[in-house]
Design brief:
Layout lengths: L2 H34 L7 E3 L2 E2 L8 H13 L2 E6 L2 E6 L5 E3 L1 H13 L3 H10 L5 E3 L3 E3 L1 H15 L7 E4 L5 E4 L4 E4 L1 H11 L8 E3 L2 E4 L10 E9 L6 H12 L3 E2 L4 E3 H5 L9 E2 L2 E2 L3 H14 L3 E4 L19 E3 L2 E3 L2 E3 L6 E8 L2 E8 L7 E11 L2 E10 L2 E12 L4
Parallel strand pairs: 1-6, 3-11
Antiparallel strand pairs: 1-2, 3-4, 5-7, 8-9, 10-12, 13-23, 14-22, 15-21, 16-17, 18-21, 19-20, 22-23, 24-25, 25-26
Helix pairs in contact: 1-4, 5-6, 7-9
């Protein structure tokens, strides 16, 4: 065999070896490609979780493991400015496995042979990250929020009226409550967990809760009346006691005030004997209240005059009260305004004062004056003049009072 033939034989041998090796490599790549058809592509991730080479027949098992880890993750819910820690599982959060499997399958089905061949021949696989989303068990989420609501809701505390030492009525603001809005927060959480990029610090919404507080605008004095007395005798203690029992009473619109129900019976704590009669002098409290009531435009329901004309109020403007041997003589009036009325009664030295407080809209621009008209010995007609924006619009006849002596 000459030299050329030997060279040709060597070349043929080497070519055969390379050809055989190429076939072997191609065969090996094809085996890998065929084997990959039942597995998730190399360098594949679901979010931060690697799923490379996961058999599709074991995909559910892999996803369950990822879901378990996800459901153990914590989220901070801010409710009424306080922070509460929950797991995603507490909120009924689950991995949307069906949608994820569909997305991975569609992607891998879209890969053609030459793309796969190129990947496997170069052993160079581009990183594939699949975003995941969630499904939410709304019943679980609602149960969690309903239980949270029991702990986070705050009752509203009504404001209150406070009469200061300066005898000025002030309103102490109510404390606004909080009510977790379960339905609205279900939607908020569902919106937050639409994708893997959820907010790990979520502020839930609630509704402010207010009391139906009709007292907050009762800081306007709508009437005042003062009578005087001798504070050197024990009778003053009966006036102090009577004033104490009616001080701070609040009458709602339409409510009737009974002097006896609040200040009587007139032998209870605070009352003392004067001229042999216990509680003697409490009628001055009732009469002072009666005049303040009239100046506030309130409606008289029941009122009797004394047999002897009183010295501390004009004729026709006294109110007698008594409880003797089971017989009660009472004085009553009704709050006919659209607003509550607060009664303030106090003694300062030898002066007894009764004031009515309410909203600045209570009198609707009206003011009242009273007039005592003497008709003859022992008889007086009581009048109440009504003014609107400074102009007299009405005079009300309150009736005639007859006295045995003056």
């Amino acid at each position: 065999m000459n030299k050329q033939k030997r060279m040709a034989a060597v070349f043929m041998g080497i070519s055969f070896i390379f050809f055989s090796l190429s076939l072997y490599i191609i065969y090996g790549i094809n085996i890998r490609i065929n084997a990959s058809k039942d597995k998730v592509e190399i360098n594949s991730f679901v979010g931060e979780y690697e799923i490379s080479n996961t058999d599709f027949n074991k995909f559910k098992e892999k996803m369950d493991s990822i879901e378990k880890d996800l459901r153990s993750k914590m989220i901070t819910l801010v409710i009424n400015n306080d922070e509460y820690k929950y797991t995603l599982g507490d909120l009924g959060i689950r991995l949307n496995q069906d949608e994820l499997l569909k997305e991975i399958s569609e992607y891998q089905d879209s890969l053609d042979y030459w793309t796969l061949y190129n990947n496997y021949s170069k052993n160079n696989f581009e990183k594939i990250i699949y975003d995941y989303d969630f499904v939410i068990d709304e019943d679980e989420l609602r149960e969690t929020l309903v239980n949270a609501k029991k702990n986070v809701d705050v009752k509203a505390v009504a404001g209150k009226l406070s009469m200061g030492n300066d005898r000025v009525l002030r309103y102490i603001n109510e404390k606004v409550g909080f009510s977790l809005n379960v339905d609205e927060n279900i939607q908020l959480i569902k919106e937050n967990f639409k994708t893997m990029n959820y907010n790990e610090n979520l502020t839930l919404v609630g509704d402010p809760v207010y009391t139906t507080d009709k007292m907050k605008n009762m800081t306007t004095k709508i009437s005042s009346f003062t009578t005087t007395f001798d504070d050197t005798v024990s009778r003053k203690f009966n006036l102090i006691a009577g004033a104490k029992y009616i001080d701070g009473v609040i009458l709602l619109p339409g409510e009737v005030f009974s002097f006896y129900n609040h200040a009587g019976p007139f032998n209870k704590e605070g009352y003392t004997y004067y001229l042999g009669v216990i509680g003697n002098g409490v009628c001055q409290v009732a009469s002072t209240l009666y005049n303040a009531q009239l100046l506030a435009g309130l409606e008289t329901v029941l009122r009797y005059n004394h047999g002897v004309k009183s010295v501390y109020v004009p004729g026709g403007f006294d109110a007698t009260v008594a409880s003797t041997k089971g017989v009660i003589t009472d004085y009553k009036f009704r709050n006919n305004l659209k607003y509550p009325v607060y009664i303030s009664a106090f003694v300062d030295g030898g002066k007894l004062t009764v004031e009515m407080w309410s909203s600045d809209n209570a009198l609707d621009g009206k003011t009242y004056e009273t007039e005592s008209v003497k008709l003859g010995y022992g008889s007086y007609r009581a009048l109440r003049h009504v003014y609107k924006d400074g102009k007299k619009i009405e005079t009300q006849d309150l009736g005639i009072s007859y006295y045995f002596s003056e």
